[in-house]
Amino acid sequence: MVTQRTAVKAKPERKPDWLRVKLPGGDKLHEIKARLRDKKLFTVCEEARCPNMGECWNEGTATIMILGDTCTRGCRFCAVSSGNPKGWLDPVEPDKCAETVVAMDLNYVVVTCVDRDDLPDGGASQFGKVIHAIQKAKPTCLIEVLASDYRGNQDSITTVVEAGPDVFAHNLETVRRLTPKVRDPRASYDQSLEVLRFAKSLDPRRITKSSLMLGLGESREEIRQTLKDMREVGVDVVTLGQYLQPSGKHLNVVEYLSPEIFDEYAEEAKGLGFLYVASGPLVRSSYRAGEYFLANHLAKENAYQLRNDVHSVASEKGLGFLEV
After folding, report:
1. CA end-to-end span of the chain, whole Å?
2. This model's pTM is above 0.85
């Protein structure tokens, strides 16, 4: 149960020590960057200047954003540019994504996207083409999709799921009360829950996943209720991380939660029956994604070794990463 530990009030100019990390580096990181530049390929990891980039890349995990760099929505937490792409699509994007996977020698890729309300299917068919291209180029690479809500269009959700990703993810981002303040008006709390429920119903064996940003002013009870809502629609994996303000134009951080508080939320999520929980200040929805999914498969082959490996990673990285 989460205790009454006091969170650190936000001071944008001075973050707590636990949010200070070394810049990513290393020979392998620079080698991969050189390969990508040679092919004029880019990743979300670089664009977002993710502090976990070096660690994930070294372990064969990365995130690719498709459907362009302009989102038709204007969520107040997100740094992606908003506008109207007017139906534009890159016809060779699926091939570029497949080339990126091969160039980086990925064993797990997260494919995410901007929202494309200007397209009849929200970009679902392009998602399907990207999935198929990656599967053809590197069949051993596991694919997680972090999909849009498609305005609740079940045909679009079906298109993405039936393309065969190993994990279907869609983020609630925040609690019900704060959703109108944090997300675009077209992205409702209940609509996102329904996306996750419907995706699970199409194939109950497929892993579904969602994520929450904390530190926006949500209460402990609201977090508990959101986790319960996720489990009720069949979400298997949840990640919880600290919201960090991208710029002065975005929502302010209300509080910085300590690693201990994230650990306590992880314990609560564990009690609700999630397959896996990743909870920590620097955890992001695609952080160490490969381990989360691969661990689930390894459990069938070697449960004892899995348990030791997972707890070892959690201990080394200070994450509330729990086997359930």
Report:
1. 16
2. no
